[in-house]
Amino acid sequence: MLYAIVKAAISGILVMIVSETAKRSPAFGALVASLPLVSLLAIVWLWRETGDTMRIADHAEATFWYVLPSLPMFLIFPAMLRHGVGFWLALGIGCAITVLLYLATIWIAARFGVAL
Length: 116
Prior knowledge:
116 residues; mainly alpha
């Protein structure tokens, strides 16, 4: 149980660092947020808990494929905000579009033999 608490605390601290950094400098906060810190932490936790290199390789590859459909959200969301769409509505639409793009990615990847 203590291990799970430590994992959660470290992960939460990273999110806090990103949000505090973004308050001072949105561009630098974005740079920190764009680093694959969460993915790297997940890989380290997975290695520590399983030692299964194939599972880690599968996780890293799937992460790559899932990053691609998430990228448009970071253009759609700010465009909607700049055009007067409310924060929560813009966020919801951005997330909904991302989910649809995830589903499309899974479907397209499967057609090319990539299992996600």
